[in-house]
Design goal:
- A hairpin with a 2-residue loop joins strand 1 and strand 2.
- A five-stranded mixed beta sheet has the order 2-1-3-4-5.
- The relative contact order is 0.16.
- The protein contains four helices and five strands, in the order αββααβαββ.
- The protein is an alpha/beta fold.
Length: 137
């Protein structure tokens, strides 16, 4: 099992927890030096707060543990949305790996490609984006 498989498997486990709670089935983990330093699953409906996506909560989890996120890798089973993309860029996450595209609200899709646009000077370079196939996991 390679790293993508290992960490994406954890995303799917977290997504299953979200689904059991009536949430969108999204899970996210943040990895530094091969170790998960933050993780979460979708809780928007449960907490009645649209900002409580898996990615933002995983970032909060890592930050609450005192972790610097610059250059880390985020795994999530679904492409980060525009909102999550802003938070990812703000924390200078270096690599984002996902399986399924989100459609028109995804952070890699023009005209609101916050995750991939290189025109935001204050954030520096966008993260490396890797879209992996479910079959390859």
């Amino acid at each position: 099992m390679n790293n993508h498989q290992r960490f994406m498997q954890r995303c799917y486990e977290l997504a299953e927890l979200a689904a059991r709670e009536g949430e969108s089935p999204v899970g996210s983990v943040i990895v530094k030096d091969g170790v998960i330093i933050g993780e979460a699953y979708e809780k928007s409906r449960q907490l009645k707060d649209i900002t409580r996506h898996a990615e933002t909560l995983a970032i909060l989890d890592a930050r609450q543990r005192g972790r610097n996120l610059e250059g880390v890798t985020m795994y999530t089973n679904v492409e980060p949305c525009i909102l999550c993309s802003y938070v990812i860029r703000h924390h200078k996450i270096g690599h984002v790996v996902f399986v399924k595209y989100s459609g028109e609200l995804g952070g890699t899709v023009e005209p609101f490609n916050v995750l991939t646009a290189s025109c935001f000077n204050s954030w520096g370079l966008p993260p490396v984006i890797t879209q992996v196939s479910e079959r390859g996991l």
